[in-house]
Automatic annotation (TrEMBL):
It catalyses: 3 propionate 3-nitronate + 3 O2 + H2O = 3 3-oxopropanoate + 2 nitrate + nitrite + H2O2 + 3 H(+). GO terms for molecular function: oxidoreductase activity. This is Propionate 3-nitronate monooxygenase. Coiled coil: none annotated. It holds the Pfam family NMO. Its cofactor is FMN. It comes from Streptomyces ramulosus. Keywords: Detoxification, Flavoprotein, FMN, Monooxygenase, Oxidoreductase. Belongs to the nitronate monooxygenase family. NMO class I subfamily.
């Protein structure tokens, strides 16, 4: 069974659901010696199975699959005012807003069935702790199970399920926070403080993530007790990433300097580049994942087709300006060389 300590390069590529995560990116990172990860989020089981087969065909190395944990879905009435507000956006783009679907579980049962029947080396979870029976089934099938946590309390809850490792996510991270309770304000404790606090509360191996963008950053979390470092934003501009053209450009455009945490696109807190959509809708966006995500999906698709970054969810961490346009394998190897040198100097 795979173990994080077996990685030649202790770097994990964040899954990045919604486009940036790709077979090519996961393959490049795993081939380089890190752990490439596929995002199961927003894919059908057939699409996920095809991507898993794609990675296996191109990389004789360990890789992971990340799954969103279903959560309590609010009543459609909770997002009705926001839907009315977004009507002007729909008119702007010439699209129709969908009716909220409370039955949307992102094919949870089918994906778990797929991953237990055809196991992969690592299965990680975001948005909460999976049921204990799911953890047991995946481990029995031969997968290592990792849960994303954002507080010490979440770490203890996940450890009690018998998982193999924790991904400790600081608030500096781009994309969605892994907070278990979608109604709770995300904990602001920076990764530099959160990581040692979690390390003191559990004996599980830890993957640290949140704004890491350099060899020095990676060395820092490894010295603080992490077994590996996870990076997402750093890979957004690599040629292997499935990042949309307007999204790539926004990462370097002066007008998109700031990142903010918002519910405007999905109904769940996530960090991204501040743009027009966030400025106009953040204040009124309700807690309402996945219903809000459903509402904005056609708007985001239209904006992407038009190349309008101001209508996209530009998920990015606080150090997004350090993302480079270099091959993912080369980036993985160079970051680790820099981190290893920093660790050597500190020893």
């Amino acid at each position: 069974m795979f173990d994080l300590s077996q990685l030649r390069i202790p770097l994990v590529q964040a899954p990045m659901a919604g486009g940036p995560g790709s077979v090519a990116l996961a393959v490049a990172v795993s081939r380089a010696g890190g752990l490439g990860t596929l995002a199961a989020g927003y894919k059908t089981p057939a699409q996920l199975a095809e991507q898993i087969a794609g990675v296996r065909a191109k990389a004789d190395a360990a890789f992971g699959v990340n799954v969103f944990v279903p959560q309590e879905v609010p009543a459609p009435d909770a997002v009705a005012p926001y839907r009315a507000e977004l009507a002007a956006e729909a008119e702007r783009w010439g699209v129709t807003l969908p009716e909220p679907d409370r039955g949307d579980t992102d094919f949870w049962d089918e994906k778990i069935a797929l991953l237990t029947a055809d196991p992969v080396p690592v299965v990680s979870f975001t948005f909460g702790a999976p049921p204990a029976e799911t953890v047991e089934a995946l481990r029995r099938a031969g997968s290592r199970v990792i849960v994303t946590v954002t507080t010490v309390a979440e770490a203890r809850e996940a450890e009690a399920l018998g998982v193999d490792a924790l991904c400790v996510q600081g608030p500096e991270a781009g994309g969605h926070r892994g907070t278990f309770d979608p109604y709770a304000e995300p904990d602001p404790t920076p990764l530099a403080e959160l990581l040692p606090a979690v390390a003191a509360a559990t004996r599980l191996p830890l993957i640290a993530t949140g704004g890491l963008a350099s060899g020095a950053d990676i060395a820092g979390v490894l010295r603080a007790g992490a077994t590996a470092a996870q990076l997402g934003t750093a890979y957004l501009r690599t040629p292997e990433a499935g990042t949309a053209a307007a999204y790539r450009e926004a990462l370097t455009r002066p007008e998109f300097e700031a990142t903010v945490v918002t519910r405007a696109f999905s109904g769940r807190y996530a960090r991204g580049l501040r743009n027009r959509f966030i400025e106009e809708h953040d204040a009124s966006a309700p807690v309402g994942y996945p219903l809000v995500n459903q509402l904005t999906k056609p708007l985001r698709a239209a904006a992407a087709a038009a190349g309008d970054a101001h209508g996209l969810s530009l998920w990015a961490g606080v150090n997004h300006r350090k993302a480079e346009r270099v091959p993912a394998g080369e980036l993985t190897e160079r970051l680790w060389a820099e981190a290893a040198a920093a660790l050597h100097r500190a020893s």
